[in-house]
Amino acid sequence: MKLNYKRTFLIGFAFFGILLLWQVYDSWCPTFLTDIFARRMYGISSAELKSGDPEKILNVQWLVGIIMACDNLAALILLPIFGSLSDKTKTPIGKRMPYILTGTAVTAVAFPFIPLFFHKNNIAGMVIMMVIVLLFMMMYRNPAVSLMPDITPKPLRAKANGVINIMGYLGGAFATVLGIFLKLSDYINVSDAARKLWIIEIPFIAASVLMVISALVLFFTIKENKIEAEMADELAEGERLAAVEDPVTDEGPMSTANKRMLLAILGAEFLWFMSDNALGTYIGNYVIYYLNSASSATMIMTIVGGLASVIGFATAGGIADKIGRKWTISLGLGITILGLIVMSFATPSGKVTGAHGEFAFPVILYVVWILKGLGMALVHNCSFPMVVELCSSKKIGKFTGYYYAASMAAQTVTPVLLGMVLNASGAWRALPVYAVIMSCFSFLVFTLLVKNIKTGKVKNVKGLEALGEADD
Question: Between vectors from CA 200 to CA 197 and to CA 203, what angle results, nearest 5°?
Fold first, then answer.
């Protein structure tokens, strides 16, 4: 079996659009909510509150967490539904494409209204747009991610997952570059009269436009029905070479061993997303309000972490060839935990030097994000293929829904839980400590409970093969 790199890169455009939009959403929206709640609760902006009573910024984080979690709760319900629906859908353009095109269209229209309503201090309009974006991204996300295993034999899915994740991180990197030049802190830390809408509007418009382009590339280059018919024999052989002991069939329920393995993977995934999403949700506020640094520092840190992630995705399969997917994920969690422990001891440089902006940012956090990016890339590269390994080709959307339901469940719980922890502790340093605890629990669950894997290792990508030349 040989992976078709050209086709896999084209499928990766779906991930490019997903992570591009997600990076903009996670980088800007929590700070929008912090600022608008400061106005509602205290009658002044977060910039004025920051200079007068910075502890009150922490007091609104639980509200930020609730809003960031509510839309995820709806997505938690919709992810498995859209997965199962797309499994059963039959159209001339395929079973996934109708959901991808509809989700893209609605999301792209609604997304730029989030900063517009924020600028107008309209919290109801902003939150409604956030909910619409999240709901229709779920319509888009599950079918888009299911495309890869639909037309990739099981032994090649870790290799393919590395490729599409690299494409996704390119999308995230583009959004991050926008954040460097269009600093959110330049908008937040000025008077209301001096705030310029274009600073926060351009990233959202750019994300919408590029998401539409990526969906059109996908539509015009990936013909689902034709490819599945051409690859029928390879996909059948892939089923025979699955990396689980008990065979997977469409008849009857899952075996007890496979069911336990699925639950263990999803449980560990829930916990590592509890950690990872906590950082993604609150890191912007952590940098602006605790480290007293410019928001561009967050974007540079994200780029550094993204580069480390690309290395992780390119090398994960080679590592899995040596030690197996289970221990590759365990290694990734261990590296991530090490980085987060270091972050727990980081303090604002400005408290010592009196510096502000970029110069107040502790350099050690760049090292933390390198370790986190590398570690979580190993985790994500191998975990999704392990889940869809446990189902037949007729249930890929359904099992993709399980995988993303676990992550969205974590993203529903963790912003609220951590917001309450920050409010109760009155300390931003609770953020990395919380992330360490959740990652440690995830490591224990995964290493102790994930079993039922064949002794022989599944053949995966080696070295930088994930960046190799595309096949014709």
Answer: 130
